[in-house]
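General transcription factor 3C polypeptide 2
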Amino acid sequence: MEEPPAKSPRKPGRPRAGPDGAAEGRGESSANGAVAAPRAAGRRGRKGKAEVLLVELSRAPEPLRGEKALGSSEDGNGPDTPRGGRPKRRAAKVALLYLQELAEELMPACQPPAPAKEPEHGQGKRRRRRRREEDTDSDDPARDADFVPSQEVLQAEEEEEEGSDTLCSEASEPELEAPRGHGGRTATTGRSKPQCRGLAPNGFHNSIMAPVEKSSSLTCSLREQKHSQWEFPDWIPVAHRWTCLSDSEAAPYLPAEEKSPLFSIQREGIKDDGALYRLNRFSSLQPHPERLDVSFFVGGPVWALAWCPTPEGSAAPQYVALSCHRSMGETHSVSGLHSGPALLQLWDLGTLQTEQGSPNKARLAYAIAADYGCVWDMKFCPSGAWEPPTAARMHPEMSRLGLLAAAFSDGRVVVYALPHPEALHHAKTTQVKDGSLHKHLICKVQCIATLQVGSVQAGNASECGQCFSLSWMPSKPHHHLAAGFYDGTVAVWNLLTKSLLQCVPQPDASLKLYPFRCFLAHDQAVRSIEWCKADSNFLVTVGSDRKIKFWDLRRLYEPINSIKRFLSTEVAWLLPYNGITVAQDNCYAPYGLCGIHYIDAGYLGFKAYFVAPRKGTVWSISGSDWLNTVAAGDITGELVAAVLPDLAVNPLNIKRSSDRRFPVYKADLLPCSPDGPESSEQALPRTHHYSEMAARSYLRFQDTDLRSFQNLPSREPMRRMHVQELKAELSLDRLQLEALHKVRFSPNLDSQGWLVSGGQAGIVRAHCLAGLASVGHQLLPECQARFSFLYGDTPRSPAPPEHSLLPRE
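C-alpha cells:
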C-alpha cells in the first residue's frame, strides 16, 4: 500500500513490518529469510496518528454508508494538519478511533458477519497493529498530557497481546471477541448496570420498575437505622381509663346515617351481574376471592385516615383508624373553634398479604368517643409502639397496639395509647351506668396527653384556631410532633419533656404539653405538614396562601425555599428524594397544569415534574416508600396511582409519563331511574340533600385488574382515564357523593401493596396493587426471621418472652 505523505521527514526508529509480515528497513535476517524486529528501547517511529488511522480504516470490513474517509483533506493539506493549520490533538484522534470501534460493534447486528480470513503471520500483524496505536507525532507531548492513556489501559493491552499467539484478522475481530469499549476495556461495566430493556413480569417496562426495586431495598435498610422496636415505655393503655358505653350513651357519637347509598362494583375482566349493595352502618362486604378488595360503610364522609404500623415480617392483622363527620351534609367553618361529639373508629382488615387477602370481612374492632369536635387529621407513631397481643401484662395494663395522635377542630391534639382489641375485650369489666353495652365496643377514654398551643402563663388555644394537619417525627425516638393551625402557626412539641414549663400533669393522670417551638409559617391556614423521613431537621408546610415552604428546624428565621404556585391540599414526602409530591386544588391552576406535581426542595434545582393531570380538585395524596408510587383521590371519584421515576436524577428527561400512571378505580354517580340514560348527568337530582340523592341515584365503582399491567395502554380503564384527563365534567350544584377525600398507602412491609381510600359516601375501600407489590417479596424472609428472633425466643423489656401471636377469631 502506498504510504500517505508524512508531515516531517522520517527519523531513524523502530523498523516497521511490511504487508507480508517482513520487516522494513534495518534488521538482521534469520535462517528462514524473515527479518527479526527487535524492540528498540529508544524513541519510537515518527509515523503520525492520522496515518495510522488511514491504515486502520482501510482495513475496516465495510464502512458505514455515507461515512467520509477519516483523515482525508479536502483543501490539500496533509492528513495531520486541519484547515486551521494546527496539528490535530490526540483527543480528537482517540474519539475517532472510539467511533470506529462503535461502528464495528454495531455492524454485526445489521449485516451478516464477514467470513474470517486465515491468519497469516498473526504475530507480526499484531505487532504492526500495536506499533500503529503507539506511534506518536512530532508534536510537543506536553500539550497532549491530558490525553495519555492510563496505566490500566496499557496494562490491559499488554496482557491481551501476551495471551494471544495467533489472533484472527482485524476484520473479523469485532464479531469474535467480546465487545470492547474505549481504550480496549471490555464492556463488563455495562453489563453490571441494571437491565432496563424489555418488560418486567408484571407488564411494566423495566425502566419503570428499576426505581421500585431500588427504593424497596433502600427503605428496608434505612428503616433499620431510623426505626425502633420500643419507645414511650410509660405510655401503656390501662383498663380503668377505658369506659364502655351503653346504647344510649353511645348514640350522640354515632354517625347519623344507618344505611349506605346503593352501589355496585364492576371489576375489569369479570362479567358483572349488575348487583346493587346497601350496607348497614359498621358492616362490610365479603372480600372478593380473586381481586381481594374490601368495602365497608363507616356512616359519614371520611376526612381522616391512617394505617397502624406493625414491625416488618410480623404477619400481624392490619388495622386502619379513621374518623368521619356525623352527617352527610355537615359543614364546618374554618375560622372559629368547634367542639362537639366525634367518633374515632379502628377497623380490623385481617392479615393482608400480597398474594392473598383476609378470608374474613372487615370489622369494627372498637371506637373512641370524643368531645373535641371533628377530626381533621390523625397519625400513628411510626415505630416502637406495637407489641404482640400476647405480651404478658399485669392487670390493669393491656398490650399496646399503637400510639395515635388526632387533630381536632377545637384546636387541640390528643394522643391515645390504643390497646389490642383482644386485650380490650378481655379487660372490659367496667360497669355500664345505663342499659346494656352497645353491640360495637364504643368507649370513652382518658387520653395519654393533650397538646395545646400557648404556655403555662397563656394557654388560650383560640389564638391559633383549628388544627388541620400534624406529622410525627419519623426517626427514633419519635419524641417530636408538629402540627399546623388556622392562623399559619406551626407548633412542635417534645413528647418526652420533663420541663415543668412544658409538661403539666392533670388530675386524671394525663399530661398537658405545651410546645417548645412555635413559628409563623404562613399568612393563612396550614393545610398540610410533612416531616422529611431521611433527616428529621427538615419540614415542609403547605398553606392556604398558595405557598409551599421548606424549613430547617435549626434556623427558623426564614424558610430554605418558598414556592408560590397554586393552592395545595396535601403533600407526600417519599423517603429517597429531595422533594415532595403535591396534590392541588384546581381553583388557581392554569389550564392543563392541574393535578399532581413533584417539586424539588431547592438543593438540586430541578424544575417541577408533572406526575399526572387531574381535572378536579385532588383532595388527598399518599406515597409508598416500598413501591416508589403515589396515589391520589379527587373530587371526580377517581383513584389514580403513578409509579415515580428516579427523582434523584433530573426528571425533565422522562419520556411518556402517561405509561407510569394507572387508575385503581373510578366511582361514578348514576341515576337509579331506568327511564333516563344510565350515564346521563342531567338525570341526576340537583340537590345537596343526601336523602334525595340516595333515593334517586347509586354509585358505580369500576375497578382495574391490578394483578398484572400487561397491555395496559390498550385496556379499557386506561382509555377511560385518558378521556377523563382531557375532558371531565364537574357538577358543583349537587352533592359530590362520589368524591374521594382520603387515600393512604400501607406503610408496612407485610401489606405494602394495599391502598385504602374513603370519601363523601362513607364507603371505605381497600385494594391490593398485587402487580407492584411483588417486587418486595425477597425482603420478607429476612424480615420474618428477624421478627421471630426479636419477638419469639428472645425476651425483651418490658414484655416477657411469650410473644406468639394469637389466632384470629
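Residues 224-269+297-328+342-455+465-793 form a domain with the Methylamine Dehydrogenase; Chain H fold (CATH 2.130.10.10).
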